[in-house]
Amino acid sequence: MTAIISQAPADRPVLTPRTVLLALGLVILAVVPVIGSDYWLNSLIVPTLVMGLAGVGLNLLTGYAGLVSLGSAAFMSIGAFSTYNLILRVPALPLPVALIVAGLIAASAGVLFGLPSLRIKGFYLSASTLGAQFFFEWLFTNFHWFSNDSMSLTISAPRLAIFGHDLNSPVGRYSLVVVTTLLLLWLAHNLIDSRIGRDWMAIRDMDTAAAVAGIPVGRRKLLAYGVSSFFCGIAGALWAFCYLGTADAHAFDLDKSFQVLFIVIIGGSASILGNFLGAAFIVLTPIALDILVQALGLDGIVDHGTVSNMLRIVFGAIIILLLIKEPDGLASLIGRLARRLSARPSRGTP
């Protein structure tokens, strides 16, 4: 009798590095409001998460679809002013619904200003999207209706509450930002893994070949602008109401658009994690440099304006050096280090 021995396939590892990192990140997000101070929540963590979320929006457009935009802050301002007016003029509207509707309004504007992508690309397309930046900054500055006829042209954070739970405390605003960010990250991950994401990457690699393959290039490009603006719009509302408290149109100027762009470049193109690494770099590096200047006692030797200009020079030099040494961004650097550590044989292994 012949014995038939069947060998079961090796089980796939349950704890992959990606799963471990995800679990670790969730634990950290849950522990932070317990051990962190109000300063950490308000001045460090919340702006990092919100700017990282805006970076995700731009990265979906630039890193995955291969398109360009220099007007990210314009769509952030649309989300902020739309949320403010929706809650002000429709008091019964729940905050989550107001955020979604504001994101959809920003998405509509993104599709409108993304129409030139059907005919032009590259530098000319970036100049076209730059028009959105100047247009909406002018619009919200000159039409007082958007700021409820405020003489200062500013909008203040409405009462942040969900199902009767007050979110105006630092922990409440942090919780709102974390939950919103996690939901949008889930949406971004599913989009990237879907047919839409594969179509975007095909268009990024070669739009002519994508069209030959039957991909609706025009519709996919406009969808990319809409989705990107949706993310930026919600990020703008969180930036205005969970971080700044009060904001005007100049809080979303061209410098803010370049900050979002630098987040994508520094963190890494076509990387979700890289956006938050880039945001942490943008938010935390100036604070670290300021602490270093105070520790060295330079603030007592030179005036504050000179110190501020020196910090900008050093910050710019760090960005240039990082891009020269690691052009694929921090996400690529960390991924390469993780692969080296995982490939290193453990002690006792023959």
Automatic annotation (TrEMBL):
Keywords: Cell membrane, Membrane, Transmembrane, Transmembrane helix. InterPro entries: ABC_transp_permease (IPR001851), LivM-like (IPR043428). It is found in: Cell membrane. It is a multi-pass membrane protein. The keyword Transcription regulation does not apply. This is Branched-chain amino acid ABC transporter permease. Pfam families: BPD_transp_2. CDD domains: TM_PBP1_LivM_like. Its main location: membrane. The keyword Translocase does not apply. It comes from the Bacteria. GO terms for molecular function: branched-chain amino acid transmembrane transporter activity. GO terms for cellular component: plasma membrane. The chain crosses the membrane at residues 20-41, 53-81, 93-115, 122-141, 174-192, 222-246, 258-289, 301-324.
